[in-house]
Amino acid sequence: MNIFIIVANERASSFNAALKNAAVQVFRERGDDIQVSDLYAMGFKAVADKQDYSSLPDPDCPYQVAQNKASEIDLLRPDIKAEIDKLLWADLIIFHFPFWWFSMPAILKGWIDRVIINGPLYSKGRWYSNGVLKGKKAFITLTTGAPETAYCKTGINGYIINLLFPIQHGIIHFLGMDALDPFIVYSSSYISEKERKEKLDEYKEKLFCIEKASLTSPPNVELYDQGTWKIKS
Amino acid sequence: MNIFIIVANERASSFNAALKNAAVQVFRERGDDIQVSDLYAMGFKAVADKQDYSSLPDPDCPYQVAQNKASEIDLLRPDIKAEIDKLLWADLIIFHFPFWWFSMPAILKGWIDRVIINGPLYSKGRWYSNGVLKGKKAFITLTTGAPETAYCKTGINGYIINLLFPIQHGIIHFLGMDALDPFIVYSSSYISEKERKEKLDEYKEKLFCIEKASLTSPPNVELYDQGTWKIKS
After folding, report:
1. What confidence tier does A58 reach under pLDDT thresholds 50, 70, 90?
2. Which member of B49, B113, B163 has the closest CB to residue A101?
3. A25: how many CB neighbours lie within 10 A of its CB?
4. Rounded to an integer, what distance in angstroms lies between the CA atom of residue A144 and that of residue A82?
5. Are A102 and B62 a contacting pair at CB < 8 A?
6. Among candidates B155, B154, B153, B179, which has minimal Cα distance to B165?
């Protein structure tokens, strides 16, 4: 398989980084091809702004319109183009990040904002079951500060499945990809070395047989009215 | 009232910007004090990284630990400190942004990651009903590409209330603030000039009597077990 790992982790010595290193090791042993975008190490530009499309003849348009225009006349910035190429190349995409403010760190959000360009990667109607990245798989590998119980259905932070829905549904499914269950290490800064080792082993085991992981497919656009995008009654 | 508006909008000519301008106008007419952080105009640094805490004696620690340490020894960067001061000054905080990938643009996520510092603004147990910003109000003013029907309970994008839950609950409530209902302009790039004017008027009306807006309070921490953060049974 072609594996693309996107990492948004500011510390090379963190447990989040150890998980990423374990993933690279497993996929190497399996003989897969791997590309890693380590956003902090790359100094990835996080802010989607006019600078990205300053070379357009008419740059004063909404950012998503500029993405579309620039792709048509081959004016995408090299840093954006390189990431799109990895995305198109990959069979499996893994997003590795610590859970900051119930979402991803800004540098990864910026990767999403800038790399998932309007036109080539999605446009009206080319989403969910009709999405451009259909057939690919993706999942999230997450570390949290709070314990698992804080993220259960009666936990104070809210149910983790609901908190990740904007990403699972609005990014992974939206693009047409099948979503594997997220791999989550709760309280990663507070668990013991022994527990960390167990989580690393569990992660490696999951990755070794990643083909067998259960997945959810994007909603079928045929079931929705294409004017309103409400489910057909 | 002291009003703090945080705007993450890359185009000064967009409808999202018009909404922000309308808000400023209303609050001026009401005689409120206003501060605006226009993140794109400020060139706000979006990425939470080591550079923010490079002046610490021991900068190799998790970012949130560095936030806490730096605040204790008065080593916060001026750009972060200025935003914290506005937050503490404000009675009402409004987040103005276009809905990008089912969330906020990276520049605003970076503001959250960098400004809401561990220690002074939250720490273990000082959250939700026990949050540091208790008594303040906050809400989201949002523009979307897709129509309202795509964000209803049977809409393909998912129910907007669920999609905004990580922000309403995980940021506004988490910090102890009461959350007003979001103000949302759907399909903002596709509606007519007349519809835009109507939405601007509706927004101004809401803001003129903002004291009367309905709100939801954060969950009561007393109802949760403080070891597990699950609801007490």
Report:
1. confident
2. B113
3. 14
4. 30
5. no
6. B179
d(CA A63, CA A66): 5
Query: Is the separation of the CB atoms in B97 and B104 below 8 Å?
Result: yes
Taking each helix axis from N to C end, the angle separating B106-115 and B78-89, rounded to the nearest 10 degrees, works out to: 90
For A109, other C-beta atoms within 10 Å of its C-beta total: 30
The SS3 of residue A181 is coil
- Asked if B171 contacts B112 with a C-beta cutoff of 8 angstroms, the reply is yes
Report how far apart, in Å, the C-alpha atoms of A202 and of each of A26, A148, A195, A196, B56 are.
12, 16, 10, 10, 36
Q: Report the C-alpha gap between A133 and A122 in whole angstroms.
A: 9
- Which two three-digit tokens encode residue B121? 């603004």
pLDDT digits (tens, 9 = 90+) for B21-51: 999 999 999 999 999 999 999 999 999 999 9
Average pLDDT value for residue range A77-87: 98
Distance from the B7 Cα atom to the nearest Cα atom in chain A, whole angstroms: 14
Per-residue model confidence (pLDDT) at position A73: 94
pLDDT in the model for residue A171? 98
Question: What backbone torsions phi and psi does residue B209 show, to the nearest 5 degrees?
Answer: -115, 45
Chain B closest-CA separation from residue A29 CA (Å): 31
Question: Which parts of chain B have pLDDT scores under 70?
Answer: none
Cβ separation of B158 and A165 shorter than 8 Å? yes
Rg (CA), chain B: 18
Using CB atoms, which residue from A102, A219, A230 is nearest to B170?
A: A102
Contact A230 B106 (CB under 8 A): no
Find the closest chain B residue to A50 by CA distance. B10
Amino acid identity of A49?
A: D
State residue B58's pLDDT score. Answer: 86
Mean residue pLDDT across chain B: 97
Hey, of B7, B144, B229, which one would you mutate to test binding to chain A, going by the most A CBs within 10 A of its CB? B229
In the block, residue with structure tokens 């939470």: B48
Instruction: Phi first, then psi: give them for residue A102, nearest 5 degrees.
Output: 65, 25
For residues A15-44, give the mean pLDDT.
97
The residues that bridge with B224 in the sheet, in sequence order, are B231
> For the residues A202-229, what does the mean pLDDT come to?
97
In DSSP terms, A230 is beta-bridged to B155
Size of chain B in residues: 233
Say how far residue B78 (Cα) sits from the centre of its chain: 20
All residues of chain B having their beta carbon less than 8 Å from the beta carbon of residue A228 are 147, 149-150, 155
Tell the burial category of B126 from Cβ atoms under 10 Å away from its Cβ (0-12, 13-18, 19+): middle
